[in-house]
Amino acid sequence: MNLNATLFFQMIVFFVLGWFTMKFVWPPLTKAMDDRRQKIADGLAAADKGKADLAQAQARISLIEASAKSENQTRIQEAEKQAAGLIDAARREAEAEKARILEQARQDAAQEVQRARDGLRAEVAVLAVKGAEQILKREVDAKAHADLLDQLKTQL
């Protein structure tokens, strides 16, 4: 075989293979590489967007946390004020109850003193009548001398 013919056929086969590769093989490969490049670019953009969203979410969380802390502090202060008000109200109510109980005790004591005085007056009147009986050695009629006994009670 002739060396020139071999080189010529190899050159033709090489050019046909090059043309076939450029026409049918290379475009799908470049398209696949471009698609892959685009997917990678989209993934990187999504990652950057995700980082930005994360930063925004963290900023919102910080704001929400700060507002929640201030709101909790406000609620605590309101609860302390309400507790102080309840304590003051209970203290006032207890003072009023104390005053009422003391007044009731004073009234009860005054009534007991009055009952004791009345009882003592009656006993003194009976003793006075018995003493008068013994002095006079005769019986005194209590019904006849009721006015005298009432006057004696009032004097005592």
From TrEMBL:
Keyword Membrane on entry: yes
Bilayer-crossing regions: 6-26
InterPro entries: ATP_synth_B-like_membr_sf, ATP_synth_b/b'su_bac/chlpt, ATP_synth_F0_bsu_bac, ATP_synthase_B_chain
Name of a matching Pfam family: ATP-synt_B
Record keywords: ATP synthesis, Cell membrane, CF(0), Coiled coil, Hydrogen ion transport, Ion transport, Membrane, Transmembrane, Transmembrane helix, Transport
CDD domains assigned to the protein according to its UniProt record, in alphabetical order: ATP-synt_Fo_b
Domain of life per record: Bacteria
Transmembrane helix found in the keyword field: yes
Coiled-coil region(s): 76-119
Bilayer topology annotation: Single-pass membrane protein
Cellular localization per UniProt: Cell membrane; Endomembrane system
Quaternary structure (record): F-type ATPases have 2 components, F(1) - the catalytic core - and F(0) - the membrane proton channel. F(1) has five subunits: alpha(3), beta(3), gamma(1), delta(1), epsilon(1). F(0) has four main subunits: a(1), b(2) and c(10-14). The alpha and beta chains form an alternating ring which encloses part of the gamma chain. F(1) is attached to F(0) by a central stalk formed by the gamma and epsilon chains, while a peripheral stalk is formed by the delta and b chains. F-type ATPases have 2 components, F(1) - the catalytic core - and F(0) - the membrane proton channel. F(1) has five subunits: alpha(3), beta(3), gamma(1), delta(1), epsilon(1). F(0) has three main subunits: a(1), b(2) and c(10-14). The alpha and beta chains form an alternating ring which encloses part of the gamma chain. F(1) is attached to F(0) by a central stalk formed by the gamma and epsilon chains, while a peripheral stalk is formed by the delta and b chains.
Family the UniProt entry places it in: Belongs to the ATPase B chain family.
Function according to Swiss-Prot or TrEMBL: F(1)F(0) ATP synthase produces ATP from ADP in the presence of a proton or sodium gradient. F-type ATPases consist of two structural domains, F(1) containing the extramembraneous catalytic core and F(0) containing the membrane proton channel, linked together by a central stalk and a peripheral stalk. During catalysis, ATP synthesis in the catalytic domain of F(1) is coupled via a rotary mechanism of the central stalk subunits to proton translocation.
Protein name: ATP synthase subunit b
Protein's organism: Mesopusillimonas faecipullorum
This protein's encoding gene: atpF
